Amino acid sequence: xxxxxxxxxxxxxxxxxxxxxxxxxxxxxxxxxxxxxxxxxxxxxxxxxxxxxxxxxxxxxxxxxxxxxxxxxxxxxxxxxxxxxxxxxxxxxxxxxxxxxxxxxxxxxxxxxxxxxxxxxxxxxxxxxxxxxxxxxxxxxxxxxxxxxxxxxxxxxxxxxxxxxxxxxxxxxxxxxxxxxxxxxxxxxxxxxxxxxxxxxxxxxxxxxxxxxxxxxxxxxxxxxxxxxxxxxxxxxxxxxxxxxxxxxxxxxxxxxxxxxxxxxxxxxxxxxxxxxxxxxxxxxxxxxxxxxxxxxxxxxxxxxxxxxxxxxxxxxxxxxxxxxxxxxxxxxxxxxxxxxxxxxxxxxxxxxxxxxxxxxxxxxxxxxxxxxxxxxxxxxxxxxxxxxxxxxxxxxxxxxxxxxxxxxxxxxxxxxxxxxxxxxxxxxxxxxxxx
Length: 436
Description:
By secondary structure, the protein is α+β, with helices and mostly antiparallel strands.
């Protein structure tokens, strides 16, 4: 993390982008929502020069996806944003820069605490992997999305706008929406985003942007920048991009946010136990990877998978082995707090390594093993089941992630889920289109 004690880096950035008047101090809360405070650029320079902290908000990690606040007596206290200045970039909003932040919090005059911060938790897990197993990681994401527009239908305020054929069909690039995809990609590349490819996805009207591999923290920061540019670019043109899991109730296609993760260095002697650790805890990991009831509408072959299983080059299972020490985790969507999710997946893998767990699950990518698929344990069919599985595994996961973070996550998710259950399904769908 790059911490400034002098404003030279800020002045250099302003010299490069003289029309930048605002800086958005941004974090991702436990519900996956991006939240921020926007400060005037000159104010930021003054605060850095004086060594003063940046206040976030007392409710920084206490909000649900419905924008309600977790009931708490007494309130937690004050959160402080700790900007990582290496992430300073132009945002999609003209004249505004964006910097990703960690969060510390303080209750009255007690010492600052960081044990609830998703970003600092990931840093801690990565440090443990390096110190105990001499492992680093590369992570990349596949961002699936569709384009929506306002609808005159009395049953829905939004309808799908992008309509080109998917499944890599070139005709999808002739859809009028695609020009804004290209605009978005070009703007992101100008900000240093490592974008490898774009293609049409799904049956109709879906696109995918493939992000290149980076160390985990940088990969997630890049992912959030991509989200910002997708939402912001299309909004300027009068449309709404959504990466939400199931934006159109009547269509079978859904949006995932598949994650690629590889061990660095690749290690045949470690990869089996690392994968076993993840598979052993995959039902509980679903609480982080698929954190809303809507997320479970993606369960199925060729989407998020259905069972606790893996396979070489198989897209029918939740974990696809791409090459030695490199996997694609398919049971993830955009509603996840990705800092917590990646930390939890790596923590599960580390538990497998430390316990020398055996890989007893067959490779379902091998034709001779495919008849064994029906014997696999089912993934949770909803968030309540996933949270129950997390309760079962909480001890060992908490030894790496920290018990306060898991307890707060479960408390917020149970409260959030109770709110969503009282909403009409279409209202939930439209809320997720707006947020994600």
